Amino acid sequence: MSFLLPKLSSKKEVDQAIKSVAEKVLVLRFGRDSDAVCLQLDDILAKTAHDLSKMAVIYLVDVNKVPVYTQYFDISYIPSTVFFFNGQHMKVDYGSPDHTKFVGSFKTKQDFIDLIEVIYRGAMRGKLIVRSPIDPKNIPKYDLLYQGI
Amino acid sequence: REAARFWRENRAEAALRERCVVPPEEYERFVRALEAALAEHERRNEERIRQMAADIREAERRQRDTVRAALQVEPELCAGPSVCSPPAGPERDSCYGAEQPGPSGIQTGPDLAWMEPGQALTFIGHQETEGKGNVHTGAKPPWLTEEEDETKQQIGPSYEEFLKQKEKQKLKKLPAGRVGANFDHTSQTSSSWLPSFGRVWNHGRRWQSRHQFRTESGEKKQK
Fold first, then answer.
1. Cα–Cα 20 to 30 A to B174, which of A86, A99, B76, B121?
2. Nearest to A118 by CA among A139, A107, A132
3. Is residue B89 part of a domain?
4. ipTM > 0.85?
5. Is A87 on the interface with B (CB under 8 A)?
6. What is the pTM of this model?
7. How far apart are CA A21 and CA A85, in angstroms?
8. What is the mean pLDDT of the segment spanning A100-108?
9. Transmembrane stretches, by residue range (chain A) (predicted)?
10. CB atoms < 10 A from the CB of B9, how many?
11. CB A73 to CB B199 under 8 A?
């Protein structure tokens, strides 16, 4: 279902998206359109995009096309979803080791909707890190490997 | 008929009526003559006023010239007061008649000197308005005479500006403490701009992660 969501294919476009989205949560999904879990996630994103249109803007980014951001955001698993608000990165504590992005897909559409709502409310209050409302059981597990510099 | 009724009502003598009723032609002639006389009278008045204005202007010019001549004469006063003041005196007499009765020679010199430097105002000339008139003659003000060349210029903000103003007011309603409230959405950034991102393997502030990323990529490039 990835053809329903707008895509960004260069660093310049990603920069433009980060700078221009105002007063709404910017959702950047990093992954590959052909990956199985990505397809699942994209499905949920596409189905909720309309309902969340007042709070969030969703874009898909191919990790092969923007290597600089793939490294800058430390993306080692796909799909990884990064959240921004007014050009500022929003961190979320999901109960997983990495707070800077959401790794994997969501179990239900409602989980994603709840998460966006919490991020939006936190941002309106000026919080740069919020706690995820999703049940930790539904969060995908992964190992965060430390890559030596 | 009206006249007859009037006569009967007021019980005046019938003979008088013949004499009082003015025939219409006579009346027309009277009206025309009246208009002509009025126009003539007004023209004569305007002429007289214009002549007076010209006279006053002439008098002012002569006064100014005399003042200037007197000031040029001033430096020479110390050398020969008796020689200079008589030529200056009679001239001034003729022009200043009403203002300075009996000018006391040298004493009025410094007075004129005070006037000349005080004349620091720029003189832009008499405004000759032969046909149009001005505020004193009660002419129509220029902002009311703009009948031709009325291209429909809208005064005030246009429609797009109005919409933008509404957007700005909506923004003001948002909480001021929200994340990135002072973020400049329209700033031009270079191609090497990176957003403020707290990276995974960094301790410390977010800008440090950006700094560290740049150092890392610098090292990698050098390798």
1. A99
2. A132
3. no
4. no
5. yes
6. 0.58
7. 8
8. 92
9. none
10. 8
11. yes
